[in-house]
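Progress report, Aim 2. The chain analyzed during this reporting quarter is listed below.
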Amino acid sequence: MDQAATQAGSIDAGEVERFARLAESWWDPVGPFRPLHKLNPLRLTYIRDQACAHFGRDPKSLTPFTGLRILDIGCGGGLLSEPMARLGARVVGADAAEKNIAIARHHAAQSGLAVDYIHAAAEDLAAWGERFDLILNMEVIEHVADTDSFLQACATLLRPGGAMVVATLNRTLRAYAMAILGAEYVLGWLPKGTHDWNKFLRPSELARGLRSQGFAVQDLRGASYNPVDGSWRLSRDLAVNYIAFATKPAH
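Predicted C-alpha cells for the chain:
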C-alpha cells in the first residue's frame, strides 16, 4: 500500500505526537515500552488460543494463522505484528504516527519478516476497502479521540465471520493508582502523561460500543500483574487491565 493517512475522526493528534517521540524505543525491552514487552507473552497466548478456537486452527501448529489476513491497528513498532507474521498470517500493521511505521519497517526487514506496514488510521483503511479476518486492537482504544468512530471503522474492516481482540484499561481508582500513579510517576515504567484516566473504558462501556457495531463479545478476561516476578497472567479481575475477544456474525 502506498496511501497516506488522513486526519481521521478518531485520531488524537496529541497522542500521536507523544508516541512518535518514543518511536525509536519500541524494541528496547527496558525502555519506555518495557510494560508491553512484559505483557506480550500473555497477549500472544490469548490471541493465538482464542483465534485458533474461533477459526478452527491447531494452536500447537507452528503456523496456525496461515491463510488469515490480520490487521494490527495502532501497531507501534510491530511488537505484535512480527509474531503474527511468524505464526503464518498475512499482516498489515497500521499506525497514525509515521515515525512508528518507519521503525517497524526497519525492524521487520532486519528480522526477515514480510509485514505490510502503513501510515494510516482505521478510518483510512476502511475507506480504501481493506478487509481482514482478525483485527488486533491492543492498548489503542484508550488513546483515540472518538471511540464510536474508531469501532465503526473496525467493524467495517472486519470480514463477516471475523474476530477482533481488544485490550484496554478499566476506568477505576485502582487503574488510576497502578497504571498512572504507579507506572508513570512512582516506578517510571512509562513516560508521564502516557495515559489519560478519563479515556479509560469500563468493560460495560466497551461491550456496549462493540454491540452497537454488530460485534458479539465471546470472552472477557482480566490481565493481572505479579510484582514479585514481573509476570502477567489471565484472571477474573477486570479492575485494571482487561482483554476481550469479539466476533462478527458470518451473515
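The longest helix spans residues 34-55. The first strand starts at residue 69 and ends at 73. These observations will guide the mutagenesis work planned for the next reporting period.
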